[in-house]
Model the fold of this input.
Amino acid sequence: MLYAPLTTLLSASFIYFATAAGVACPSPNQQCCRVVNPASEPVTTALLNCLGVSGVPQNLGVGVTCVPHVFISDIFCDGELVCCTDNNHGGTVALGCTAPSDF
Done:
């Protein structure tokens, strides 16, 4: 029964993440990012240009150095816990990132 506490923790964490803001963030969109900035930040714009990512709205949240987040708690995330809508950039950047309170 070693897995029962872990299952309970994960279930409770997902429920917290899903209900804290009133809207659920699907598991694949849950990210732990080192930094989250708007695309309008000069450094973020330069990074997006280097990666060949174009057409990003200036007010869109961009997560930098993101990894999928399994444990939905700030305790297990060294960066910012966010929900991102576009995670298909190899972990270097994730687009459409919002904090749980912004959902």
Remarks:
- The longest helix spans residues 3-20.
- Residues 64 and 93 are 5 Å apart (CA to CA).
- Residues 1-21 have pLDDT under 50 and may be disordered.
